[in-house]
Design a protein that fits this description.
single chain; 279 residues; alpha/beta; Rossmann fold; 2 domains; four-stranded parallel sheet; 9 helices; 39% helix; globular
């Protein structure tokens, strides 16, 4: 809608339900003459590569991907940067030293975020234990809650979730269990459960999509891999102000320092004595 309002574009949205619909809906938009089509997710890459040659006047964009061609753009998000900041906070708040990660499915961008999160956890607490689980889908909130309760039963008192709608079940588990915190992802989810959400790893998608739409409309578009990170303003760690007081002041200072290094392009994660990650 920001593209619609700012550029006067005609916009349309389709929610796909099966992989077979990726190709079908890309072709539908190409046939109708759409200038720009976003397939939101790493999983759209193959469909974009198959369909794009048949519609050379349409720019196809996949998010979280790595492959580009004449009219295919891979827009990848440096999820690992704000995830690292989230890991610093999680480790400093955890009392048990056991911290969970729960994803929808094990896509490379999700895994990269969890790896960076885990690395930061072990920088703060080398003896911490990180539990990782994948639900197997992105919409089963009941399964998300079950995974969260299983990790809580093993001692996890902070859980970082990246599970889309299934993550709502993870929030529910945290709300129902005393002394358990959660970290949101993708959008700012701090208000989903404000009393237990430490913060959110945020992708500013409107900003990311808008910048590319402007480039296409101006006629200055060039096919390339677009890597969007903290420096671009697209990737952000957003601390929940309601829970700022539970984060040690030294951690707040560390997060601020690392974030400034990321924005300057000078941050290099220190080596951490990582404990084994557990499933």
């Amino acid at each position: 809608m920001r593209i619609h309002d700012s550029l006067g574009a005609q916009v349309s949205h389709i929610q796909t339900k099966t992989p077979a619909e990726f190709d079908e809906n890309f072709r539908q938009y190409g046939a109708k003459g759409y200038s720009l089509v976003f397939g939101h997710g790493f999983e759209f890459q193959d469909a974009a590569a198959r369909v794009a040659p048949d519609f050379p006047k349409t720019i196809f964009v996949t998010t979280g991907g790595t492959r580009s061609s004449a009219n295919v753009v891979a827009m990848s998000f440096a999820f690992e940067q704000p995830s690292y900041l989230a890991g610093l906070v999680a480790a400093s708040v955890s009392k048990s030293g056991i911290i969970g990660c729960i994803g929808g499915t094990e896509l490379p961008p999700v895994r990269a975020g969890f790896d960076a999160f885990s690395q930061a956890v072990h920088v703060v607490n080398p003896n911490a234990k990180v539990l990782t689980a994948y639900i197997g889908n992105w919409d089963d909130a009941g399964a998300g809650k079950e995974q969260a309760l299983a990790q809580i039963a093993r001692g996890a008192d902070v859980i970082y979730q990246n599970a889309d709608a299934a993550g709502l079940g993870i929030f529910q588990a945290a709300k129902e269990t005393p002394h358990v915190f959660i970290i949101g992802s993708n959008s700012n989810q701090n208000n989903v459960a404000p009393t237990v959400t430490l913060g959110s790893v945020v992708i500013d998608l409107p900003n990311a999509f808008m910048s590319l739409a402007r480039e296409v409309k101006s006629g200055k578009f060039t096919a390339r891999a677009h890597v969007l990170d903290t420096r671009s303003g697209v990737m952000k760690w957003v601390l929940n102000p309601q829970l700022r007081s539970v984060v040690p002041p030294r951690t707040l200072q560390l997060v601020d320092s690392v974030e400034h290094q990321m924005q300057a392009g000078t941050f290099a994660p220190p080596a951490s004595p990582r404990a084994p990650e557990e499933k």
